[in-house]
Amino acid sequence: MDRGSIYYQQVQLLLEVLPYVSKEECFALKGGTAINMFVRNMPRLSVDIDLMYLPVEDRKSSLQNIARSFERIARTR
């Protein structure tokens, strides 16, 4: 694979970010990119991080806790 390609650069960035995201156990990685990274080896048109928030909470609590989780992720860098 051409290391200068946009796809390669996007995958590199995703792989750099995922360890930080994985520290927050409230999120699960899902979607086509997750399948592609861990099950198949097929180039995709887009590379993104699809996250699912796992705890079942009311909307207000969920939004607050998601924001706190992202704040912790942002501070770890």
Account of the 3D structure:
The chain is mainly α and 77 residues long. It has one domain (6-76). It is built from 3 helices and 2 strands. It has helices spanning 6-22, 32-38, 59-76; strands at 27-30, 50-53. A two-stranded antiparallel ribbon has the order 1-2. The model has no long low-confidence stretch (mean pLDDT 86).
Give a quick summary of the entry.
It is built from three helices and two strands.
SSE order and pairing:
Elements lengths: L5 H17 L4 E4 L1 H7 L11 E4 L5 H18 L1
Antiparallel strand pairs: 1-2
From the structure above, extract its key features.
55% helix; single chain; 2 strands; elongated; mainly alpha
Tell me the fraction of residues in β-strands, as a range. 5-15%
**Main sheet characteristics:** 2 strands, antiparallel
Shape estimate? elongated
The overall pLDDT, averaged over residues, is 86
Low-confidence stretches: none
Figure out the total of helices: 3
Give the helices and strands as they follow along the chain: HEHEH
Number of strands: 2
Terminus-to-terminus distance: 28 Å
Q: Biggest sheet, strands in spatial order?
A: 1-2
The number of domains: 1
Residues in helix, %: 40-55%
Rg, rounded, reads 14 Å
Question: Pairing-aware structural class of the strands and helices?
Answer: mainly alpha
